[in-house]
Amino acid sequence: YAPDPDDWDNKTYVFEGHMPSYFILNKRTGFLIIKENTPPGTYQFQVRVSDGAWPDAVSTVTVHVKELRDDAIYNSGSLRLADITAKEFLELRGKQRSRYELLVDFLSEMLSVPPDGVNIFSLMDVRERMLDVRFAVHGGPSFLQPEKMHGYLAAHKQKLQSFLQVSVFQVRVDECTSSECSSAGGCSSTLNVRDTPTVVDCGTMSLVSVTVESTAVCSCPGREQSHQSCTTYPRNPCFNGGICVDTQHGYRCQCPAQFEGPECQQNKHSFHGNGYAWFPPMTPCFDSHVSLEFITDVADGLLLYSGPLAQLQTWDHEDFIAMELIDGTPTLKINHGSGTLVLQLPGNINVADRRWHRLDVRSNSKEVRFTLDRCSGAPVKEMEGLGSWLTTEDHSTCEVTGVTSNTDRHLNTSQVLQLGGVNEDIPYIYPQLQHKHFTGCIRNLVVDSKLYDLGSPADSQSSSPGCLTTDSSCVNMGYPSCGHRGRCHGEWGSFSCQCVAGYTGHQCEEEAREFSFDGHSHAHYQLASPLPARRTWIQVLVRTRKHSSVIIHLVSREQTEYLRLEIFQGHLCIFYNLGDGNYNLTLPSYRLDNGEWHEVFFDRHDNELTLRLDGGGGQREVTGTWSRSREIIIDPTAVMLGNTFPSGINKSFQGCMRDARLNGRYMPLDSQPRDGVSQVSMQGLSAGCSSDSCKRNQCNPPFTCVDLWRVHECRCPPGHMIRVNGTRKFCVYTLCATRPCHRGTCVAQSPSKFTCHCPEGYRGRHCETALAVYREDVGLSFSSLFAICICFMALLALLLGIFLYTRWRSYKGLKEGVYHVSAHHDGWEDIRENVLNYDEEGGGEEDQNAYDMAELQKSLQPSPAQSVQYCRSRALHHPPPSHHHHLLHQATAATPSAQSLDPLSRTSSSTTLPPSAASTSSTTTTSLRRDVPPTRPPAQGQARPPQLARRSLSFSSQDLARYLCEIIRDADQHPDSGPFDSLQVFSTEGGGSPAGSLSSFSSAGLDVGSSGDGAGEAVREETLGEWGPRFEKLRALYERAEASDL
């Protein structure tokens, strides 16, 4: 961008300095083109602009490249601003910041996220001076859900308008407010994303992004939801870690055990009395049906609220819906935009009884019905077989109806749905509500057959997924009470189990067996007890290729009333007569005759009938209430499976069945009575559900036979596609044979073209790029947490025990005294060059830190003998007190004490002798016994034997010598001292040591008995000979030394 007054000149644009590798510059127009797969980041470079006449200008360009992931787009929030364009929103206003930057700061402050976590990625001019702004906010491990952003923006709408100085027309762009869909079943707003880039350029700043548009679809979103293949969805359609599985008619979800919805929804949520949970807005059909179940023991509370979050302006919609408990009585408040209708059940009803209750709200245009527990307890009287005009019923205690005021006919709510309470931290005071919180659990929130996922609210407080009150009954010693294949229906202190389709057994651990019906078959049953007249439900797994056949047939005793569940022209259908005529209800969108296993479910409450296929939801579910009669008394002896009653041939079932249940009772296919159901007769049934189509049909090469269950198909080998030339088919090699899609599925469009369908977590043309997919933790059960805590505590106890044991061993070693070494390894302790760090009895040896250990380990002088000499000289001038005496032994060969004296005898260097003792004959020696307490000599003034002469060596540390001498003197003079410690000098040899080195036999210390008569040598040899085989080497050294002297 280089502003120029004469902009008509021809300019030239070139890079200045560093050439950016990811950008291309158009030299004539100055347009920058970014290359594909440019890494995210900030790039800065300079561009020189010249027109050939005036001085060149150099512009600095900063490009911020941000990755726009699919989850950012589908978790994006939106605003519709009035009287502004995209260019005006982006440009700087003089010295003021742009509205783009102001909105980033506002979202950052309101949602408590850093500014770089806010990404405004789309600015679209939709109408004349109307602007749609789309943004994503990354908060923590994932993007914030749009309901949270929309809720807080709606609550602070006035503040946002003042901050941006612009009018906010809509929070959450909803095209249905301006669309005409009255002739359809409803309206929903969908988001369309195109790769075509949208450029907003205001000179100094430009925004380039994908094109995102919101459009209105005139349909009922809940009932008309279709199921496509897994790869057609931008993200996994299965919630809570469910696995998406493709079938011939759309996807199915394989769910973890704790999630019961058809798309693995968490169907329960707990509230603790002062909280709330936010979920996506309700988009009910024009003929709407909203239902939920709850359990509580508190008489007052707010179950549900969907409506305004801020003070309304004159042009704002005031639509809202609220369900409250007032003194234990359910109350509905609903406003279609022109006045509030309040429907309250009779005051004698109290639902705060610790039982599950169900509330239904049905609205057909202006008429609204509010029903408790489906009126299952209301009295109904019918004269069987005489027509509906003799039917009487009383719903006054369970249902209330009303009509909304004025002309508005439908509920239009675009704001967040609040369950279990409302957020009171926002400025709005909710004048419509009497109570603002709820204590208890809510489950199975369904809006027009769409089951809400209650596991991951956009915002919540004092609430949690699941139901803490009842789920505790579903866990026994850390194991699910109903097993991993069972669904536990918890009550307040009790529970019941229901196995998922295809499983049976006490813990739902057994897989139900398959049985084949040959087309001329039936299974006739008799029930031990009658079925309820107002409730019937059937569940069975079927597999067939027959277009029309009967699954189960139930009749009354007169056979005028009946329920017949069958496959009619490939579709699931129920034909029935409850006493007032023949009716039928068909599920038209999906077929059952495709050879796949299908879960069929039929449910009747009074005159309301529901069909579900493969879990239901959307187009897989249909509900009808054509009949006015509500009861049918079924003959317990006339229950027919796989045929009509009485049995015929035309509509006999052909295919396979398993796990057939009637009102929860298993209908055995193996002739074994079970759950009060026994077989009367059986024909044409066989165990198993095999197929041998490829055995009976062969394919010509290179085609291969594929068994599609009782139908075969000849297909090309992998990597090839079929081509048709007239009546001839042949296989053509395609690039899919090279497996170009690394982790995805290759779909050949032609021999040279293919597309890759990437699984979740991968993208790219060949599915080569792995994404960091965040999956929210579904959480651990109470039993798992308890087991983890027990293991952790056991580990702590084990570590504590090991620590205490090691400390006790250390203390015991200190208390018992010296460090013992076995006799076999005592030579290991004779280390001459080091001072060993071990604790031994005596004073001062534990103080190994307060003194310089380096001087003890390796002296700076040849020998520390000067210390000994210094102590000896001080002892001559300061003799010890008279009560300290030393024991003297005569060194003779006849006494044991004399035998212990040899050139290696360890004598104390702390002994002090008078000078006259040094000249005494060498036949007597003095040994200080440091291993026994001192004893008094016979006489006080007895002369002391002479000591061995020691060679005095120089030593520089006088302080050390003085300190050691004082320590030795204090220990020797103690009156109650035990055996003395002895200072053993191992680091010197020669005249300064009483024990000479083994490597030098000519030192002075070896001349123990040298008197010229050979007595010393005789004593030495005799002593070494008596010491045993361990000293043979030492004795050999002596003999070798004597031989060398000769």
TrEMBL record:
One of its GO terms (cellular component) is membrane. Residues 266-467, 512-689 form the Laminin G domain. The keyword Transmembrane applies. Its main location: membrane. The chain crosses the membrane at residues 785-805. Residues 875-953, 973-998 are annotated as: Disordered. Pfam families: CADH_Y-type_LIR, EGF, hEGF, Ig_Shg, Laminin_G_2. Residues 903-927, 938-951 have a biased composition (Low complexity). One of its GO terms (biological process) is homophilic cell adhesion via plasma membrane adhesion molecules. GO terms for molecular function: calcium ion binding. Residues 892-902 have a biased composition (Polar residues). InterPro entries: Cadherin-like_sf, Cadherin_Y-type_LIR, Catenin-bd_sf, ConA-like_dom_sf, EGF, EGF-like_Ca-bd_dom, EGF-like_CS, EGF-type_Asp/Asn_hydroxyl_site. It is found in: Membrane. CDD domains: Cadherin_repeat, EGF_CA, LamG. Residues 226-265, 470-509, 732-768 form the EGF-like domain. Keywords: Disulfide bond, EGF-like domain, Membrane, Repeat, Transmembrane, Transmembrane helix. Residues 875-888 have a biased composition (Basic residues). Disulfide bonds join C255-C264, C499-C508, C736-C746, C758-C767. Cadherins are calcium-dependent cell adhesion proteins. This is Uncharacterized protein. It comes from Nothobranchius kadleci (African annual killifish).
